[in-house]
Specification:
The complex is a heterodimer of chains A (285) and B (301). Chain A has 285 residues and is α/β, with parallel strands linked by helices. Chain A has eleven helices and ten strands. Chain A has an eight-stranded mixed sheet, sandwiched between helices. In chain A, strands 1-2 form a two-stranded antiparallel ribbon. Chain B is 53% helix and 14% strand. In chain B, a hairpin with a 7-residue loop joins β7 and β8. Classes of the chains: A alpha/beta (285), B alpha/beta (301). At the A-B interface, α1, α6 and α9 of A face α2 and α6 of B.
Amino acid sequence: VFEREFILEEDDLEEPLWDLEMALLESDIALSVSEAIVNSVKSQLVGTRRRIGSNTGNIVEDALKNAIYDVMSANVFDLDEYVEKAEKPVHIVFIGINGTGKTTSIAKLSKRFKDQGMSVVVAAGDTFRAGAIDQLAIHADNIGVKIIKHQEQGDPAAVIYDAMQHAKAHNVDVVLSDTAGRMHTNINLMEQLKKVCRVAPPDLIIFVDEAVAGNDAVERAAQFNDAVPISGSILTKTDADSKGGAAISIAYITGKPILFLGMGQGYDDIRKFDPQWFVDQLFGE
Amino acid sequence: MVMDKLGNSLQDALKKIVKSGRIDERTVNEVVKDIQRALLQSDVNVKLVMQMSKHIKERALKEEVPSGMSPREHVIRIVYQELINIIGKSTDIPLKPQTIMMIGLQGSGKTTTTSKLARYFQRKGLKPGVVCADTFRPGAYQQLKTLCTKLNVAFYGEEGNPDAVGIVERGLKELEKNDILIVDTAGRHSLESDLITEMEEIHAVAKPDYKLLVLDGAIGQQASEQARAFNESIGISGVVISKLDGTAKGGGALSAVSETNSSIAFIGIGETPDDLERFEADRFISRLLGMGDIKSLIEKA
Ligand SMILES: Nc1nc2c(ncn2[C@@H]2O[C@H](COP(=O)(O)OP(=O)(O)OP(=O)(O)O)[C@@H](O)[C@H]2O)c(=O)[nH]1
Ligand SMILES: Nc1nc2c(ncn2[C@@H]2O[C@H](COP(=O)(O)OP(=O)(O)OP(=O)(O)O)[C@@H](O)[C@H]2O)c(=O)[nH]1
Ligand SMILES: [Mg+2]
Ligand SMILES: [Mg+2]
């Protein structure tokens, strides 16, 4: 140790780490994930040498920021690039818990792809919830994309299969398949989801969850990802909860990237996920 | 299951007290820390958890352990009392003619809960009528109409008309012969000022007896802030926690009732009209703490 340096001890870190952990929890990062990140920062810092006079609080905050940036930038995946290069039709299935924003996100992305000059078909794979087919049909009509639908209570796999057949026959670029919201604990419904993915295999599976979700985000992201391996996630309703810590819980537990953020109910209220921007706003910059 | 793991860790912590035989500060700190973790993991507001745990610690150390009660029983009882203090009794909704207005964030479960409540009153022999005041979400009209048709419940809505306030005015008049009038509204959050204003206008014409805030069981730290905003705007009579059939613990609802001084009326445990249960504080607390039946735990202690 040089004269003008000191060694960071566990005791020095205790308080700043606690404060930051509380801030993470207040941003809706799940407790288990907050603890894991804080512990990794701690073991990374303990025993390192610092210049005398440097602020431990700042050192800890910087390290934490980097740790979160690493989680959020792991396996980045550019959907636009993927779709542009992939063999058409590209089939994307949207999955998640009830009411998180799957159908609305499909509407937003339909418009986005259409604006990019691609042809889009949406598949009304939620045959269960009252009004679900109407909801997607109204969106499709507003945006001007084709919808493939069957009767309410029909077999979701069959609808989605039909949409793929239609897309192949008509040289459609992108098929966005809606599915009914379901609880990860509902074994029958999770089996149904696996069946959909067998009958009409998707190129990508996108998990949709909402920014207002708390600790449960970890549990359901893990279980959906186990059932049908996801390619990435969309976090909706960030306009209601700007911190959006759930994004960190989901990215951490799945190891898959966040692709988009939903930020309102309008069709253009969707933004490509940018890890740097996300970390900056999380730390209030 | 996660819940069991948590439950065991809490129970282990409480056993530590039994082993030590008396209440010392270190043991209490350990137990309180475990309780903190359980509550935070259940999405109770961070500040509320810190405030509560401080109080629990103080009481556990200060209050004498009543004779015939183990130290462990003593601490559990304090935790339980503190939680019951916040939760209070479940919102009492009498079985008589009234108007109920449903409010809440987007996708929280208002429309589904509307159909569940209609079913609930129907089963109690009252005649419900439902008004669709969600003119915003595509398909909202069809969703509610389909649900009501299946239940044979009177329904009023005007497809394509964006004037929610007018619809409520006409709907309530049209359905006035029914006993229970339920107004379903569009989802909104505290930062959408136009929609908050619309809600206030609907409230002014509907003059509801009850305003039920529907909260997703998985809602995190936003619960207090959102509940505060809705309460400030039109007042909340009670909370319905939806989607408790998954793994969410519903701690957001605790934050919401603490923030607004209201109480919880029902819980939603599935997507069908029958998946509604009256709220039971003891079961809810057990779930929050990740313990088995809290009553029997206290009795066993
Ligand atoms: N404020 C806000 N609302 C959103 C956003 N995304 C979706 N919503 C709203 O959330 C509600 C539910 O959205 P849906 O798209 O129907 O959700 P879903 O996941 O398809 O729901 P189910 O099919 O019932 O499981 C609707 O009222 C949407 O308008 C968003 O980014 N911000
Ligand atoms: N598993 C489960 N799903 C539920 C429950 N309550 C509602 N849902 C589902 O959650 C989703 C959203 O419910 P809605 O009733 O449409 O929610 P909402 O608040 O009316 O949504 P907006 O009108 O868009 O704001 C639907 O898929 C419902 O079937 C519940 O208790 N358990
Ligand atoms: Mg949907
Ligand atoms: Mg609704």
